[in-house]
Amino acid sequence: MDVPEASYCCSGCRSVAGVLESEQEEGDAANGLLRLGLAIFFTMNVMVFTMALWSQDIYPADSFTNPLAETLRSLFRWASLVFALPVLYLLGGPIARGVWQAIRSRRLTTDLMILAGVVAAYCYSLVSVLRDEGHIYFEVGAMVMVFVSIGRWLEAKGKHRTGASLDALANLLPATVRRVDDHGHISEVPREKVRTGEILRVLPGERFPVDGIITQGRATVDEQIVTGESVQVEKSACMNVYSGTLNLDGDLRIEVIAADGKETISRIVDMVRAARSVKGRHEKIADRIAAVFIPLVCVIAMVAGWRQGQIAGLDQGILTALSVVLIACPCALGMATPMAVWTALGRAAQGGLFFRSGVVMERLAGVRIACFDKTGTLTTGKPLASELHAALSADREQVLEIATLLAKGSIHSLSQAIVDYSHGQSISESDSSNTEIETWPGQGLSCDLPEFGRVVLGSRRFVEELGLSLPPELDQDSSAQQVFVGWDDCVQGVFGFCEQLRPEAALAIYECKGLGLELHLFSGDEGDRVVPLGEQVGVSTKGNMLPEDKAISLSTLKKRGLVAMVGDGLNDAPALATADVGVALGCGADVSRDAAGVCLLTDDLRRFPWAVGLARQTVRIVKQNLFWAFAYNSIGIGLAATGRLNPIWAALAMATSSILVVSNSLRLAHYSEPQSVDTAMSERNSVAVTQRPRESVNPQPELAEALL
Length: 708
Prior knowledge:
It holds the Pfam family Hydrolase. One of its GO terms (cellular component) is plasma membrane. The protein contains 24 helices and 22 strands. It is α+β, with helices and mostly antiparallel strands. Helix 20 (573-578) links the parallel strand 20 and strand 21. It has a seven-stranded mixed sheet, with helices on both faces. It has a six-stranded antiparallel sheet with strand order 2-1-3-9-4-7, with no helix packed on it. A six-stranded antiparallel sheet has the order 12-17-16-15-14-13. It is elongated, with a radius of gyration of 36 Å. The chain folds into four domains: 1-162; 173-262, Calcium-transporting ATPase, cytoplasmic transduction domain A, CATH 2.70.150; 351-379 and 502-613, Rossmann fold (3-Layer(aba) Sandwich); 381-501, Calcium-transporting ATPase, cytoplasmic domain N, CATH 3.40.1110.
């Protein structure tokens, strides 16, 4: 199947694409600079000879009537021709090739206008030299090509810079890996030859070349490049590792689960590059304008050239037409949107968030309503044991110690919360290595202790079914999430739990309100358990919502404006897909979640308002670029068509316009990171990130029923 040839508006865009796609970028860049440098050298010589010829218009005419002056005049004209021809070859060649390819594809490009003006200047000047009479404009054609080439070279460098962070990310992966065969022999092979299921050895100080599961060894791993978290993570057997992350101190064996091209880093790079290929609304508008702009400018150039030729002569007509086609080159218009969007996508990738496309970024900039999922988004999704009430007849320390002994026999989140709570109380730990703990699925845990007989830890229903009586002082709040511990046919204590609000949640909400967003909290929990959390962070709430209920509510809100839905991406797929912009929190290695338009690699909720701010700044930059491009072309064409703009200045203005658009767009590369929570909190004393006590936040009691 034939792949259609890519189309470009000019040779500059073609060279930009070559720089971005070439595997030998440094060689191409050096070659381009050499051609440009030689062209500048020859152009300077042309300008010197031309300045000597211009002296006739400054000094008295009788100074040039002697034979030597006439000979030098003729010599300088021929010298201008000789030194101008290499410039036409070095810089005009790529333009001519671009025009020929465009003609074969039946397209009009800006190169056609530039080439027509330059060829007209050269042909008219050549005839003047051969006839030894008339003005010559070699310096005009040469300077035009130099300025155009410089502007497009800077454009290419600017676009290349927007992809430099992605290239650096991809280059982090080692070229070779240590593969371990079935007999334990280790051999170095290229990374691209690694297959899923093979075993690799990764030494301390090396980056993981692929995604894998640790089969042997322990290590501290720096995952900041993938997750954005600066805290190092302890990794051991059966735990996942991601490509690009750094093994700090362990000799590991890993089983490959995603090989080269399918692992995390490659998917991140592919995702951002794919996002660049999708055109947004502003870019499509600019493309449609440029499509009719080129033939319109050609007509204006011919009419203006003919008119000025009638008024001031053929020479002025040629200069006027050339000025119009040069000043009207719509490169700035064509770069206005993609340069800003490309730079913003690269900056977002550095910040640990990924946009599906520039279209998603434009939508996020227009969002006025944001909805948050509760569990796993505003909260960590992990229960926190907030208190322990002991029966009047029981010893609290003893109750805590026995509950901890049982909890250590389970990996359930409530059990781990009890273990964490006991560590916070600094009690002495019992040895559970010889204790056989029985698990009652969905109910609780039990074991036999010599001094106490049968002890149990579980839900209210579990202890009631076992016949344990509940003292009145412990039977106070049946709606809260609770776990009971008891023995001797009596409940001896009850643990109360609350959800952990993310440390940055209140500050993220504060920043969202600062952006003027209308905020909502959706949850499947009972309404009376969700409202206190919403009041804590200052967000209107809705409870008892199934996934389809969230989607319906979002559809209603969309009638009032663009809506973003922020969720953990696991059970919020319908809501993320329904919203104008779905934002998945904590994507980690799974950056390819289909439902979300924006993926955050971390669980830092403050990345959402940061993303909104970046998107809005990007749209502002795009509008500034478009305004400048339209204003520049409108004013420039007016000046050129009336004969008030020399072609050299027109070419310089065109190059300057492109440079301004590129430099304005590159400002997005320095968009500031959000402050740390501690720093931001110290500056906003009115914002307090706190944990609600049990009586204020009533999380799901159903979790207690699922205690293993």
